[in-house]
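note to self: the first set is below, dont mix up w the second
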Amino acid sequence: MFMAESNGRTVLVTGASGRVGKRLVDALVERGERVRVFIMDFDVAPKGAEIVRGSILNKEAVAKAMKDVDAVYHLAAVLDYTAPRSLMFDVNVTGTKNLVEASHASKFIYLSSTAVYGYHANSLITELTPYAPSGFYGKTKSIAERLVLDRKGIVLRSSDIFGKGFKDGYEYVLMQLEKGKMPIIGSGNNRIHWIHINDLIDALLLAKDRGTPGEVYLVAGKEVKPQKELFNLLTKYLGVQTPHRHVPKYVADIMAHYEMLTSKFKGSRPKVISDHISKITSDRVFDISKARRELGFEPKVEYEAAAKELVDEHILRNAR
């Protein structure tokens, strides 16, 4: 069990150089928290925080980072679905094990993912919905969750993240919509329930303030919309025609596999992978009532505003 052993109020953030980590560190510093970041030697350190460099696979470095820490946010993970499985397991599972075993913090918050459920659910998903990961990433997150919960840590299970700074998969869709080449995949009626980065940061802060050790909290966005409605919002701000052509999911999967193979041959990063297709076509709605009730979590960002934000960032990025 995680127990307070220090009078200090230092908050440790792993994965602080990542897209979520940077935003979280900024929010903690803005709140007046004393923040320590645990990052790799080559990572750019965020401002306003104490820096400890090293790997979560190095137990000595982990012990140094954990010294006199009151709360831990464990965000470090390998999310790249094209990464070697051995690396993903080492970081996502072994690294988490090292951290929980070294921690004496009063709160240990682990950022997990709805990938632990897989992409095949078509009913309302809750914290009690059984694990059914579709891919290796989801499997590693489910194993890491159990390690955290066994030590009475807090698991924040987030749906897919979108918003400023998140372009993987989204950039490809925007480019295809601009060219008039993006089809509706399947019927387009599947419900999409993602979370904006701003709402996720709010949830992470609330988990530290109000989360109960040993509990899981499922967090997702304010709205649920069908795939084709989200495409309509994006084309509205792109100023292009809404797609009407439909292709079966298996056709999109074949195209994604082809993109991965050609990218591997060229030595470049694929613009789209099968997991991106699954995110767009899965029908998943998440029950966030526990987070609302126990954390006071209330997502604020609507898809309309987020679509404009995504398009504005896309236009700015491609104008450079």
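second set (the one i keep forgetting abt)
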Amino acid sequence: MGLGRVLGAGAVAAAGALAARRLLDLDPPGGAARWTRTNHRGEPISLLEGPAVAAGLVAGALAGAGDGRTCAATALATAGAGAFGLVDDLAEDTSTRTKGLRGHLGALAQGRLTTGGLKVLGIGATSLLAAAVGTRRRGSAAAHTADVVVNGALVAGTANLVNLLDLRPGRALKASALLSLAVVTGAAGGATGAVLGAAGAAARGDLGEQDMLGDGGANALGALVGSQWALGAPRPVRLAALAGVVGLTLASEKVSFSAVIERTPWLRSVDELGRRPASASGAAGPVRGTAAENPAEDPAAEGTAA
């Protein structure tokens, strides 16, 4: 993967994210109040980062993900995850307490479609479609079908996992950048530039607690990173990555990622890098908007959900 393609994708993604944010700031759809939340400091925080980052990621993926099929697949997965995440951000019924993947799937089993359930179905469908577009046939039809299913699950699972990490300022941006860099030499390695460019454009506002990714931005980031792994890693690596994603997702139903990071010195140091000092009333920092997706995160103990 050429350095020029990575740099080009980064420039396009950063410019796209910044331009989208400027347009959204001029006239936020539905009014600014619809996009404003309050963090544990009692300060307003904007969800407009999410759609701006998603727009930059799609533009960067189209510019640098690779050949035509890979570009189309990564852009489709990213746009689909961002769109369904944004629906959940703006239309979630906060009067109910449906939390986590298990909660939304349970509601579906009872015939009740939550916005979270719609997001699960929508991201699953667009991820599978993107995998069908981007996965090249190697071996028999059965082997190809299995590859498509594994790749689709990896894209959707990574979209959800990055969303679960968006509980502190900058955490999802940092994790996505590291995961993307790990596969920069793969078939979709140029998309690493898109991840770094969009993350760089959003970092100041996110770390400064002025902005948050929300589901729309975090799901889009995760879907693009998942696409890189799905379309650029060998089959054994993809299977191991999927197992890791599934394991962490299941663990999130019982274990607080924030608590694990807090008691692991090197993880805590990386997590706090660039962040504003925590206030005395919320030493762990603000819980982000996606806390509702992770029942193991305790808003009462860690702050008010943004």
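remember for set 2: Strands lie at 36-38, 44-46.
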